[in-house]
Backbone:
């Protein structure tokens, strides 16, 4: 645990030391900590997965929902200049104090669970959004879908932009295997859009199931 009043930069450096691997896909750790956080979930959560176009789709969804008068929280990765870009509320990046306060709340609930940098940041985004009393959360999947930290929150709608060969070391070496991982964002009874004309068999099979 960092000392009181530690700046965001110190937190971000410290987070890199909590887990032996930069990427360690799985939902058990994040769901364990999430269960101890008092997160107020909105009526609508849009989860966006896919290989290409996730960031653009997030930006368009945010613009459309905001134009409709809804208060929107957006979680994206990676950032370009400042970490704050990853967490946006009402069109503005979260401030250092908001993020550090969220980190402190995650740390209080962590109880020694070894979270990756991305998992810790995802939980912090949920805390910031919960405090902001938003109408919609728009979450961009970091990698894959089925085992990505963002998938710890059940969406009420999902978008899979497309599927191509990406992150093969973690997701698989062929389109269908990767598609099955991205299909993990789907839930029974919620609308899902697939953003390409050719739909992989794994996407169709998951939809039918």
Residues:
């Amino acid at each position: 645990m960092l000392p009181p009043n530690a700046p965001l930069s110190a937190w971000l450096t410290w987070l890199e030391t909590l887990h032996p691997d930069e990427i360690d896909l799985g939902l058990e750790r994040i769901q364990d900590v999430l269960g101890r956080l008092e997160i107020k979930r909105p009526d609508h959560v849009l989860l966006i997965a896919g290989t290409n176009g996730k960031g653009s789709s997030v930006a368009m969804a945010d613009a459309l929902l905001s134009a409709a008068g809804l208060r929107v929280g957006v979680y994206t990765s990676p950032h370009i200049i400042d970490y704050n870009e990853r967490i946006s509320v009402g069109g503005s990046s979260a401030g250092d104090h908001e993020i550090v306060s969220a980190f402190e709340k995650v740390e209080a609930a962590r109880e020694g669970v070894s979270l990756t940098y991305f998992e810790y940041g995802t939980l912090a985004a949920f805390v910031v959004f919960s405090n902001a009393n938003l109408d919609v959360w728009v979450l961009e999947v970091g990698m894959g879908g089925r085992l990505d930290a963002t998938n710890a929150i059940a969406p009420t709608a999902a978008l899979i932009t497309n599927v191509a060969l990406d992150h093969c070391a973690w997701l698989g070496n062929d389109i269908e295997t990767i598609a099955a991982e991205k299909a993990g964002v789907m839930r029974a009874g919620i609308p899902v859009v697939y953003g390409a004309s050719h739909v992989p068999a794994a996407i169709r099979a998951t939809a039918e199931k």
